[in-house]
Amino acid sequence: MGIPLHGIDIAIIVSYIVAIILMGWFLSKRASQNLDAYFLAGKSLPWWVIGTSHGASGFDITGTMWFVAMLFTYGVKAAFIPWIWPLFDRIFRQVYLGPWIRRSNVLTGAEWMKTRFGTGTAGNLSHISVVVYALVLAVGFLCYAFQGIGKFAAVFFPWDLSWDPLLSAHSYAIIILLITTGYLLLGGWYSVVLTDLVQFLLLTIASVFIAWIAMSKVSAEMLQSVVPQGWDRLWLTWKLDLDWSGLIDGLNQKIQDDGYTFLGFIITVMFLKGILVSMAGPTPGYGIQHQLCTRSPREAALENWWMSIVQLVPRFLMITGIAVLGLAFFSSTVNGMLSEGRSFDFEQILPLVVRDYVPVGLVGVLMAGLLAAFMSTFDSTVNAGAAYVVNDVYKRYLAPQAPAKRYIHMSYLASIGLVIVSIVVGITVGSIHEITTWITFALYGGYVAPNVLKWHWWRFNGHGYFAGMLSGAFVAILIQLPKTINGFAGTELWEFPGRYAFFVTAPLSAIVSIVVCLATKPEEDEVLLSFYRNVRPWGFWGPIRAKLRQQDPDFEPNPDFWWDVFNVGIGIVWQLQLMVAPICLVIRRWHTFWGSLVVLAVTSVIMKFTWYDRLERS
């Protein structure tokens, strides 16, 4: 049960909710002009606005709760754990994939398929497979958001909406989802971006204050007394060198349950997996929508650079401040609960710390910001999912000549349908960690091979893409199905360990993709030549490059492969410092903090010459 909020905090929260609904109403006329306006804001917004919006969408409440639990448990080494997504995929988009995507000038990731596979049977099949995958992914991310907002709200609000605390959390989640859906329907992508900007401002203010509170209340010596030796060290070892015995004994079991006992090995595997996932490009969700709504290929690259900065620095100030306060003031309570045989949900550390250690007024700002964080992730996901339903199913196959107003009305229905499905499925999910593992290991595994091959191999065709995507998504759903049945029916069906799912879905999808591709004919030369001329990818495009040069002897292929490889490597190191520096600042690990700033400065200067100065000016 939560505790009553102060009147000032309630006033701030209510004012925020009223303001965003009014904003949505104000933007509704502009957003309802056509699908391009509703789903991409007319491709009229500058890169720094899109980058801030994209970064704010990633500053979600669910992921923040999860990262707090990870930092609490694993210490500074937790800076590597975001590679599970992988967080460095935006570096690939910054360096080269963002401009490649933007050159297509389409509305959705599914519509992009026609630029690569044409509009024949193979193109239609690839298009359908992306729509299916996009909707499965949207439901997965919406379940992820559902879990986080329910757990968060149940700590703060004083009303028990059910006899069961879990059901009470679900009730709060449903209410907040409905409010968010309301303003999203009004303003479309304009609402998404505007809410993201408000959220970024609120959360940046709150992050700085929380970091300051943690540093003023918890000395370096006090923190050292409640964490095991090595907690504040960044350097990875093959086997995790943390022992929580005598401090919080239950954390040793949590580390084992998470599967991170051999953390160095796990991070290495996640890094290699992440390289493949990043080369595949953004999944068909709000990530690719942010690329498509920029004004030019150059701005698509800059948007991703700015996104890393605006998301990571304030977010990890907040995450570290909350984790430090939790370690200092909740360790004994948590240890007592676990020693008595009671359970403790480490994903609840964030709301518990905010409730008990953040002052009146700032709680309201922080809660408004975190509600905005939830809403920005949620509305971006719903908007992107609805775009696939309306643009890639209804408009393409059912009503290609319908008036713009009908498409907007169908967008409303598609958004509502996605929300209902996500609520039903979200109720069965056990934890944030569970859904995170399923998305990043099972669902992403099925995405990798077809999407790496589509960029880099001329022979890969729409039939192979269709078969690989659907087989990967189907197996990912089968892996999750027993958990969903157990959640609904209370049965005990055997469940496949989620952290190993990538090693099933990725190879299977790759094999199916290549076999079907080689068993069917290549795409038409006209389609391949057009794609290669416009997008200019590097990779195995020799036959197409030769044919294009016969038509246009002056054509120059993309010469930047080695520059891109170099910049990706430098960019990953640069991005890691955006997490390490704020973590070490708050915990006062000064030599690591200053070292990370030096590395950040050096890599920034290098990228200025090797990346920024080489960006296309068109």
**CATH homologous superfamily descriptor of the largest domain:** Sodium/glucose cotransporter
Low-confidence sequence ranges: none
- Strand element count: 0
The whole-angstrom Rg is 24 Å
Characterise this structure:
74% of the residues lie in helices and 0% in strands. With 618 residues, it is mainly α. It folds into 2 domains: 7-427, Sodium/glucose cotransporter; 428-523, no CATH class. α3 packs across α15 (362-398), α4 (61-74) crosses α13 and α7 (121-156) packs antiparallel against α15. The longest helix is centred in the N-terminal third of the chain and has 53 residues, at 165-217.
Explain the layout of strands and helices:
Elements: H1 7-31, H2 35-40, H3 47-58, H4 61-74, H5 89-102, H6 109-117, H7 121-156, H8 165-217, H9 220-224, H10 250-258, H11 263-280, H12 286-292, H13 297-339, H14 349-357, H15 362-398, H16 404-426, H17 432-456, H18 462-489, H19 502-519, H20 525-535, H21 542-551, H22 561-587, H23 590-610
Helix pairs in contact: 1-8, 1-15, 3-8, 3-13, 3-15, 4-7, 4-13, 5-11, 5-13, 5-22, 6-7, 7-8, 7-14, 7-15, 7-16, 7-17, 7-18, 8-13, 8-15, 8-16, 11-17, 13-14, 13-22, 15-16, 17-18, 17-19, 18-19, 20-21, 22-23
